[in-house]
Structures are given as C-alpha cells and as structure tokens.
Amino acid sequence: MRQSGEQMEESRQGEAMVLENPNGTKKMFLESYGCAMNFSDSEIVASVLAGKGYTSTNNYKEADVVLINTCAIRDAAELRVRNRLKEFNAVKKYNPKLIVGVMGCMAERLKSKFLEEEKIVDIVVGPDAYRDLPHLIESVEGGQKAVNVLLSLQETYADISPVRLDSNGVTAFISITRGCDNMCSFCVVPFTRGRERSREPESIINEARQLFEQGYREVTLLGQNVDSYLWADGKAKKELTDEEAKRGFSFADLLDAVAKISPELRIRFSTSNPQDMTDDVLHAIARHENICNYIHLPVQSGSSTMLNRMNRGYTREKYFERIAAIRQIIPDCGLSTDIITGFCAETDEEHAETISLMEAVKFDFAYMFAYSERPGTAAAKKYTDDVPEEIKKARLQQVIALQQKHSAERTKQGVGKIHKVLVEGVSKKSSEMFYGRNSQNTTVVFPKGNHKKGEYVNVLAEECTLATLIGKVI
Ligand code: SAH
Ligand code: F3S
What we know:
By secondary structure, the chain is an alpha/beta fold. The protein is about 35% helix and about 20% strand.
C-alpha cells in the first residue's frame, strides 16, 4: 500500500540500474535515491559514461566505478545514503581501486565537505556537471579527488539521449525543466538544483516521438514546477518582457504538441504548482484523451498563515479555487498532493485546517512528511524548528490515517466501472496477472490472457484492495 513519502522513498531506494554494452571494458554501478528527476538524471549519466565505453553492472562488488545519485530533501534521505556508503567502503577495503562517486542533491549541498566527512568518496558531482564525469573519473585515476558542483543557468542535457535503465519498455520519464525558482521556505531544492530553466521544446518532442517509435506508450514530463515551463528562444524567464512571455511556448503548448505525436501515446506530468497552474493547462488536458486525467498538486498545508510562512505564493482559498477549476474542466480527474506536518510554529488550529482541507478535497493519494529542517533554507534562517518531534509525528499519523481512509473510498468508487489500462508488466503478487494504471493513476490488476505489455485494455473492476483495482479484461 502506498503510504507516506518516507515509505515511498524506502521502497524506491537502492534501485540499481543495468545496461548491457558488450564492447565496454570498465563497469559502472549506478544507484538512485529520491525523486523521479534523479532517476531520469541517472539515465543521462549512463549515457555519458556509455559513450566512454562503460558497461553497467547490478553488482557493486564487481564495479570499477560506483555512482550514487542522492537526495537531500529530508535528513532521513541523507542518512540512508551515508549508510549505503558504508557498504561500499567495505568493498574498497579489498579493492582499493574502486572509485566511489556521489551525485545529485546531497553532493551539491555538501560540496567538497563530503570528501572530508566521508573519507571513501572520490568524486562529488552536482546535478549540472554530469557531462564532466569522464574527466572527473580520469582525475581520480590519476590519484586526485575530484569535485564539480558548478550550477548552470543553461544546462538541460537537451542533446543527450538518455539510456533507459531498468526500463519496462512501456513508460519513460522526460525532463522538461531543471531547477526551481520558487523558494518555498522549507525546501533545499533551489539550492541543490539551481535556477529554473526550460528545455528547448523540439528536443522534448523528438525524445517523446523516438520513445513512441521504440514501442513506449507513456511518457511522464518532469520538472519541479512544470506549469512554469516557458521557452522563448532560450532566454531566461526573468529577462522576458510580458509581451515576449506571452508569445513564448508554454506548458499548455508543450502538452498539445506531445499529445499530437500519437493518440496511442499517453502523457503524464509532474509536478504541478497551485500558484502557476493555469486553466490553459487544464483545457489542454481535457482536449486530449491521451493526456491522463491525473494531477499531482502539492498543497503542503491547509492554512493560509502557514502557507505564507512556507512562501508558497497561494492561500487556502486559491487552492480551493484551483481544485474547483480542475473539477469543472476535467470532471473525472485523479488528484494527489504532498503534505508537511509540524512546520515551524504550526499551531493546532493550523493543523486542523490541513485536516479540513483534506476532508474537503478527498485526495486519491498523498505523500506525507514530518518537517525536517534543511540547513541554508529560508526557514532554517528565519524560523525556529519548534514543533516537538512527537507532535510532528502524531500529526503525521493523523494525516496518514485520514488519507488511507480517503484512498480506500476513492479506490472503491472505481469498482463496477470500466477502466482503460495501459499494460505495464507482470503483477508483483502473481505471475498470472498483469498490472497497469488507469488514466487517474490508480493501479489495476487483471489476468494476463493473451494480452501484451504496451497494449491498452479495457478492464471491468470487480473488487479492490485499499489502493488497487482488480478485475478482468472485457
Ligand atoms: N516541486 C517539487 C517538490 C520537490 S520536494 C516536486 O516536483 O514535487 C517533494 C516534497 O517534499 C514537497 O512537496 C514537500 O512536501 C516535501 N518536502 C520538501 N522539503 C521538505 C522538508 N524540509 N521537510 C519535509 N518535507 C519536505
Ligand atoms: Fe521545493 Fe517549492 Fe520548488 S517545494 S522544488 S522550492 S516548488
């Protein structure tokens, strides 16, 4: 059962990625933690190193280079990485030539401090410096430690074809923006991933088309805030006049263009932002049957005073207004959210407003977290992390319990209905069953019959568990 974000991360941790390249001589082991963007970035890294003849292995004990793509969003995520490094250290004892590199947000946050804190680390490489990896590896081979944590205003890796790692051959991620300019006061991402920049649309559309031609049937467009995607001849958003911004290629335009590649290609996207999600985007979703009716719209808190402290740029009322627009323009839309409990100075009343917002919206699904202070953020500088740990956790438990009830109710509503499902693979629970998702992102499980991965089937849901519909193809 999908539950809190912490558990979600747990289940995605340590996903090693394998790539066959019989001509290569050296072996890399790549492991990713955290968000979808990190998994997508690892596919860029695999491509950069495959270009240098590296093959990949899923056994770090036989690797020449071990690279770990890290998450810094909460303290717990960083702790997991440090524990994993201890395991790599054990290998280094009998294979001193092993090169250990740390990539991603934790690398960017700690920079060269990482080398002092974790003696076994040889390479520290930030999210905008992956093209430099072959050179960094060479430096280490030459006996030096290597660090590149430069953030870029332009890098989007637009010209690099990601090597699809551990792919089901049906669904794939495509990055459309990098970085984030939102500066939510609790969040470390603007510091670890730098300024927001959009990727040139042709390269996105071409990547989606190529995936479709290779047999993929679903792409998820990725960005920290997809709604602020804007391409205006490569100019930074902040430099644009209102006129230029209006003429630019927006997220709604991008959705239209990708949707037109083929009606057989499904489109998802993540993450939407309440302060930037326009009706144009909602109309684009409604216009195209192949753009899934599912929106992940993080609310964080149901209290306007709290949202103000979080610097989220919207109020409770504005959030409700966006939900109303979704319900009106896309009547059958799946909705999920992110919630933080116990942010600085959160009162009982503010927490109660989060509960009442959840009651009012009834999300299909939510990622829920206890606040974890991140060094360097506005919250760490301006506010005190003063909600006692046990209160944070108690509020989190209350939020999780309520969400489970809502998820179960929403899943049950799908029973007795017919769902168009894209077949993604064999169910984990039974080799006789396939699984896939409906447009609203609910998992649907059904007997395999003569169906194939990558096919669309109509499934009549006959029963359900808390978060999964079970049925048969009709
Ligand atoms: N816009 C991003 C958000 C990335 S962080 C996206 O693409 O989803 C994912 C979620 O982690 C946030 O929405 C927030 O709910 C949570 N989060 C961020 N910083 C946090 C912190 N310091 N403590 C607890 N949760 C946090
Ligand atoms: Fe973080 Fe807010 Fe951006 S949660 S990733 S600063 S939208």
